[in-house]
Design goal:
single chain, mainly alpha
């Protein structure tokens, strides 16, 4: 076993012990450090730390879940606009870019949402 693998195993064992003792915040952090992101996200979600849950889902590549968690945390920033784009919700991305005063991004998303709308209307 290589040194990084040993470190990851140690982090994972520590996370499981902490979870067993009910130290969910610390356990979630250790799961994230061990790159077990979905488990980390679920623990953060369970303790209602939605911002960190979003970070863990994002790291796991689960963008829709990350977006949901960030929105539950009350975020309305650049990262949310980017996630709207990545998940194909260009209209909401455009609205958010506009409120953030990012004209270039707003125009790009608005155009993309209109193209999708026109595409959907063609038989």
């Amino acid at each position: 076993m290589t040194s990084p693998q040993k470190a990851k195993t140690k982090l994972l064992k520590t996370a499981m012990i902490l979870e067993g003792f009910g130290k969910l915040q610390k356990a979630a952090r250790y799961y994230a450090r061990a790159e077990v992101y979905v488990k980390s996200a679920r623990l953060y979600e369970g303790i209602r730390d939605f911002d960190k849950a979003g970070d863990s889902y994002y790291a796991a590549g689960k963008l829709r879940e990350a977006l949901k968690m960030y929105l539950r945390a009350g975020r309305k920033d650049r990262k949310i606009a980017i996630l709207y784009e990545k998940t194909g919700n260009y209209r909401k991305a455009a609205d958010l870019w506009k409120s953030l005063e990012h004209t270039r991004n707003w125009k790009r998303c608005l155009l993309q949402s209109r193209q999708l709308s026109l595409f959907d209307l063609n038989p």
